[in-house]
Amino acid sequence: MSRSVHFIGLCGVGMSATAILMRDQGWTVTGSDEGFYDPQWSMLLAEGLPPIEGHRAANIPAEAERIVIGRHAKLTPDTNEEVAEAFRLQAQGKVVVRSFPDELEDLAAQTHNIVVTGSFGKSSTATMAAWALHHAGADPSWFLGVVPNGFPQARLGGSDWFVLEGDEYPTSNWDDRSKFVRYRPTSAILTSLVHDHKNFFKTEESYVERFRELVGMLPASGVLAACGTGYRVPEVAALSRARVVTYGGDGPWDVSYRAFRRIPGGSAFELWRRGERLGEVELSNMLGVHNAENAAGVAAMLLEHGAVSFEALASAMACFPGMKRRCELKTPPECSVAVYEDLSSSREKAMAFLAALRGQFPDRRIHAFFQPHTFSFRSRASADWYAGMFADASRVVLFSPPSLRGLGADEMGTQEILELIRAGFSGPVAAVGDAESAVAELAPVEPGDVVAVMTSGNMGNAIPALVSAVVARFG
């Protein structure tokens, strides 16, 4: 008879991935959430793990032995009756309450764990690493903070390889340790350390310190693939006992991409390793120079370990299926206006997305529909983020941030953000607050233009409405 586990906050990306892993371990999985949306919703339905909508004490099955609770601010016992019931049952000795990093720590106890982390690029890099190992027949496990196209978000394999996307954010509402230190890191890929999650990490030093802790955990037998141009990466990498392999573009790196060029639907480049040209790599479904850098990080790690050959790596990149919400094309190829969606949860991610589109479509107008969904975008400490952030756009439509609570003293509202965008951008800027108004802002769009949707939320359910309106009008 299988054991039973219940997830409160099932639709969080880490929660849903952990639920899949525990299901694959043989657990009977149930879970609940509220306000969920795609791609997690559709992915969970496809995996046979439909969430219960809403939080109620009665959601917890009588047979549940374990309850996993997410990190969301609303998942606390004083505000959520389902969470309160979970802790009540634990006090009675009937269940064990855990976080999803607790579960991953157990799952990763006997494997070689490659933790992929940094302030940006970690989802794409981790997904490419998992895909390369899988495509090469290495039978890896993986845990990703993104929904890939054409393969699972999480998987338990039969080999020692385990790729985990590592997040520096706290483990749970009762445990302030960073998630990634729970993942028993053997090796790591480190992309950049630009100050993020400013609601929790008040200073840059407090943010970087978490990565120092992670790097300090790596054993001498491991590998640290460190981006040579990543902000503050070299100084943190210098603390590593593990073998350090640097990567980047043209430069004095151990692994580098060179002669970057754009191809339809992706990019291509030469891969070099310690002065030797290994060959040409075509990266399918990934636009932009930043993704060539991410692929170089994957190559640095996997080639150093001898986990795959260059030929197997190049073959995997050529058929990489891409990911949901990472520069994802939302319109059919025949549509004369292309709509791309990207999470764009920080300044660097937003700029990389727009730069990738501008590089791919140098002569087209780009209409950026942007929602400052993360707290970092709304923090007054990030006011300077908006200067030049939309340099590669032709026009900006600001969608109001979510009204999760009253504005704090250090939090900016729509009007203040609108003024910052206008001050740092010379093109037209508009502001909207609902799906209908957002669709109305498609009026200036013409055949051949590009629409860039930029949010880590659901933009008030405006995204499918924007895509449908574009397809109906252009193709």
Could you describe the 3D structure shown?
By secondary structure, the protein is an alpha/beta fold. The protein folds into 3 domains: 4-98, 3-Layer(aba) Sandwich (Rossmann fold), CATH 3.40.50; 107-318, UDP-N-acetylmuramoyl-L-alanine:D-glutamate ligase (3-Layer(aba) Sandwich); 328-474, Protein-Tyrosine Phosphatase, Chain A, CATH 3.90.190.20. The protein contains 14 helices and 23 strands. It has helices at 13-25, 40-46, 81-91, 100-107, 122-135, 204-217, 233-237, 289-305, 310-318, 347-360, 375-378, 414-423, 435-440, 462-474, and strands spanning 4-8, 28-33, 52-53, 66-69, 96-98, 112-117, 141-143, 154-155, 161-165, 170-172, 175-178, 187-190, 223-227, 243-248, 255-263, 266-273, 276-284, 328-329, 338-342, 366-370, 395-399, 429-432, 450-454. The longest helix is centred in the middle third of the chain and has 17 residues, at 289-305. It is globular, with a radius of gyration of 22 Å.
